[in-house]
Amino acid sequence: MSKVKIISQPVPNVPWQERPEGLKDAPVWRYSENPIIGRNPVKGVARIFNSAVMPYEGEFIGVFRGEQVNGIPYIYLGRSKDAIHWEIDEEKINFVNEKGETFLPRYAYDPRLVKVEDTYYIIWCQDFYGAAIGMAKTTDFKTFTRLENPFLPFNRNAVLFPRKINGNYVLLSRPSDSGHTPFGDIFLSESPDLVYWGKHRHVMSKGNEWWQSLKIGGGAAPIETSEGWLLFYHGVTGTCNGYVYSIGGAILDLEQPSIVKYRCENFILTPEEWYEEHGFVPNVCFPCATIHDAESGKIAIYYGAADSYVGLAFTEIDAIVDYIKENSSVTSTDTEIGIR
Ligand code: BMA
């Protein structure tokens, strides 16, 4: 039994590989057969990366960022029995409007998938006269109904919390520009109905540490634990040879998640393997989802690698929470409520 409790459903078939012997300091380890999705995985799709998966009806389901052979990103549905080997649909997800008419975004990338109550939400980046947040809901993974754009452009990296907090839906986002954004902090917004958004709060600034000194952005949907919301996010540094994306970890207050309780000053995963260092965009580890088992405390982290592949990594709730707490360095802007 873990000492930190994950507050969600058991997922006894969570994908898993034991910590490699000899790995001492790192709290996270990679799946030995990475990448789990290679190049040209589906007809018409050159690369799949930055994708989100979750348990569904005893198996697994996911929404995948597919870079089509015309270079335009779109979202594809995929299914898996073991959350490692994926069958991705050849057809793009056919989003519809409230009237049931086809209503496709011009492009769609970096999807997250979150279940709140009985509904599954896909949140992604799309064109709304510039890069902005797209949202759709489904209850059966057959009909995907788009909601109104929640925010003005420019914004990316939106992640919904998996339950309402104090009666409202809560969304993390990262205001940006419409290009390769050389700045960025994580903010939070609330909504009673997923239509009207407000009560905006600042959550976390880019960090003092060099690996996250340029910008940060939400990653996987926060995991509810007895210590707070465990958030895997991405942190970016600028080098003379371009951006480098690493994975960071933080723990947010359960009832007031704009307050950061702990924030790890070390990255927890940074590009090291060939599939992270080499690809369409080198040096990118971009987390978008976890599958976690409340009973065993096992956590599988899904991340995009080098804008070319999907990677899988593992950790355990006690190990990751201890590591974040032991190496925590929070700033005054992290720990304040986030109103000015
Ligand atoms: C960001 C997003 C991600 C991408 C990353 C690295 O701005 O577009 O989709 O993985 O850049 O290229």
Please explain how this structure is put together.
With 340 residues, the protein is mainly β. The protein is globular, with a radius of gyration of 18 Å. The protein has a 5-stranded mixed beta sheet, with no helix packed on it. Strands 15, 16, 17, 18 and 19 form a 5-stranded antiparallel beta sheet that branches. The chain has a 4-stranded antiparallel beta sheet with strand order 1-22-21-20. The chain has 3 helices and 22 strands. The structure holds beta-D-mannopyranose. The site of beta-D-mannopyranose (BMA) has 10 residues, from strand 7.
Helix content: under 10%
The tally of beta strands, per DSSP, is: 22
What is the beta-strand fraction? over 45%
Rg of Cα set: 18 Å
Total DSSP helices:
3
| Largest sheet: number of strands, sense, barrel closure | 5 strands, mixed
User: Which cofactor or ligand species appear?
Assistant: beta-D-mannopyranose
Order of helices and strands: EEEEEEEEEEEEEEEEEEEHEEEHH
Strand order of the largest sheet: 6-10-9-8-7
* SS content category: mainly beta
